[in-house]
Amino acid sequence: MEITSAYANKLLKQLNEEKDYWLKQEASSCTYTATVDEEAVIPDYDYAAVSEKIAEIDAKICRIKHAINLANVTSLISVNGEEMSVDTVLVTMAQLNRRKEKLDDMRKHLPKQRVESVYARRMSLTPEYEYVNYDLNLVKADFEKVSRRIMDLQMALDIHNQTATFEIGDL
Among 6, 41, 72, 160, which residue has the fewest nearby CB atoms (within 10 Å)? Predict the structure, then answer.
């Protein structure tokens, strides 16, 4: 069976929903409560059948995830003329997103900012200031550059996920 990564992820979502259904069925049916003087209402539950169904779903999930992983390692996509494997794109995006968060925090600092703390007010009547120790314009430019790079990577990955196919075998 040939599928795209986008379709594979939809299948995974569907399989996880189906597994959740069976797990909830099992949780609500594997035990019952009754008083000594009443006829018990025993829920319809077959441990072996439910366990087998969950195992089948888990096996399908494993096959799909394995196929996605193989495709991510072996498939190359072009990002602004640079060939990268999908797994490299994913790692790079995670790294860049962490860097973007830090740059976003840094670019929001004022060049000079009064330090407001209870401790500083008690100890001294002289105000304290915090100063940035970097070029704000350079940080802002790097933030924009990292943001563009993330967008380029994401767009290339989105196109790949919607168009490139790989084999997952029979489900």
Answer: 41
Helix (H, G, I), strand (E, B) or coil at 47: helix
Note the pTM of the prediction, 2 decimals.
0.81
Residues 44-83: tens digit of each pLDDT: 999 999 999 999 999 999 999 999 999 999 999 999 999 9
Helix/strand/coil for 113: strand
Pairing of strands 82-85, 76-79: antiparallel
- DSSP H or E segment with residue 2: strand 2-4
HSE-up (13 A, CA, CB side) for residue 41: 1
Measured N-to-C along each axis, helices 86-107 and 47-74 cross at an angle, to the nearest 10 degrees, of 80
Question: In 3D, which of 13, 125, 105, 137 has the Cα closest to residue 68?
Answer: 13
128 backbone dihedrals φ, ψ, rounded to 5°: -110, 145
Name the amino acid, one letter, at 109: H
Cα angle, residue 82 at apex, residues 2 and 78 outer, rounded to 5° = 25
pLDDT tens for 88-105 read 999 999 999 999 999 999
Kindly state the tokens that stand for 168: 């997952």
